[in-house]
Amino acid sequence: MNISVSLDLGSTGTMVRPGVVTLILDGLVGEVSPAGGAADLRASLSDGRPIDSLSWGATPQGDEYGTGPAPAYTGAADGTLLYVTAWSGGARFETTAPIAQTALEISAQPAPVGPLTVGQVVALDTGAAGPGASARIVLLTLDGVDRSATLSGTSWDSAGEAPGLLRYQVEWTNSFGTRLSDVVEVALEAAAFSAAQVPAMAPIWDGLSLEQMDGYAEMVAPENFTSPAAPIADVVVSVLGDATAPDAPLAEDQQAGFSVTVTDTLGNSASFVAAPVTVEYALRAQIVDADIELERNPIAVRGLQTLDFTGSDAPYNGVYSLDLADYVTRPILLDTAPISGIPVIGQALTAPDALAVSEGSDGVESRAYQWYRYDPAIEGPEDRVAIAGADEAVYTVAPGDAGLCLLREETASDSLGTSDAALTAPVEIATTALADTFTAASGTGLEAHLGDTGHGWSLALGSNVEPVVSGDALALNATSGGSVYYLAGGVTFDDVRVSTEVFTGTGGGAAGIVARASGSEDSFGAYLARYNRAIGRVDLYVLVNGTATLLAQSAIVDAEDNATYPLVLECVGDSLNVQWDGITVISRTDTRLTGLGSTGISHYRGATMRLDNFSAEAL
Questions:
Q1: Domain count of the fold of the chain
Q2: For the purposes of burial, counting CB atoms within 10 Å of the CB of 376, is it exposed (0-12), middle (13-18) or buried (19 or more)?
Q3: At 299, which CATH number?
Q4: What is the pLDDT of residues 263-273, one digit of tens each?
């Protein structure tokens, strides 16, 4: 609207009569905002002359609202007058206009925010109105039931409420009146829990438990779950299918799954179900020689597996554990077999290869060995020392091993790598390399008899009635024929001490012991020390190519009929010594036989004579 004021100007520029010049206000509207002024309001003179100055005031000729082209009457009271004063060419022009009262208007209706979740504290949107208006919730119902008592200002706590339809209305008030908003409707829903990693079964194989399944720990952790209403308070896991507990190992073809019930601090809860799956196999195995042939399920890459070979042949007929995480990166040696062979000097020892498993493209491709020794009197296996040069599967016991423990270390290699070392159980090497107490069933022939150290006996020269075990001694039983020589098998010596006990019996004959024996029949060679009963002396012979030569004979020794006396032959280098009943009776040197040879016994007839407690040990 426009307001025009006409002024009649006199010579002094004062208003003298109306109707001559008009001060016009353009841009007036019926509703001027009281809070921000009227930026579009403009003043002009009706005859077009320029205005030299302009003021806007709350009082006549005042400039409380500014002197610019438009007024700025922030804070002006509704209904008051706006005074306008213009000067042009020394003449003053004035007019007034009312500042209109402003009606209350809602500029923005409340916006429904949702859906809402049970348990939330909700800040209800009130929209916007102005100027100077305040809002309050005047209606709040849930499925038609009043819930305004649970309001705090414009906030509503939905804890303990059931899902339903929430309706509310806002009342706006200022100095000019009140206005009601539209009724807002929003759904209140049950708390929708979420999981960062949704519980689900991963492939699982026999021997694993649910707890060992990939991702299980993360899927059941409280931090995996979120409630929109409140922090997580509790997580409960239940097993499904054939599973009996989260930590119970599973078997092939079982069904296994789990569910997780999650509860927040407001009591909201939800369940997540990992549907059961079939437990797969991890390994299928059989032993071939000392290797295990495995068929591994590609999904099985970790966990402990039990391999049960109780029905297999010895030595690997036990139950073994296999760590798949190791198995897929290198060979694994599961077990070692005992060392075999007579644990005496000169005897060859060995052991079956360690029980190996390999994921390599060609299985186990090679094995490496190392023999060790330690003194059991003061050390244990952890103190073992490698034997120089003893890096084959077989080791021949050396004289320096007497009284010590030996054991073998083994590693296996394949296309993936090399196993950890596996050690056999140790064996102790006897200080007496060969021993025989001739303990067996009476009537057992010497060649069918095994000595205490596991050695056998064999005829090397001569022929006669075979000696037999009788009364835990060796009865010679011969009444005719020449000398015979029986050798203890398996062990050879160069420097050696051979001993036996001679039962003299009655009548004639001779019996004794041999050392450094080799060959047979016409190539037979040995040193022989024997008690010659016919003359009561001890003889020392050397045999070369089956022919015996007397090296020395003792004086007559003390020997009674049917009595037992120890006889000893020592060979050290070219030095030969013979003892009877603990006394040295012969000492000679001879260089014809200085190498390794067997030990044994010899007799010439001697039907009533017996030998017992034979032994041989390295010197």
A1: 5
A2: middle
A3: 2.60.40.2700
A4: 988 888 899 99
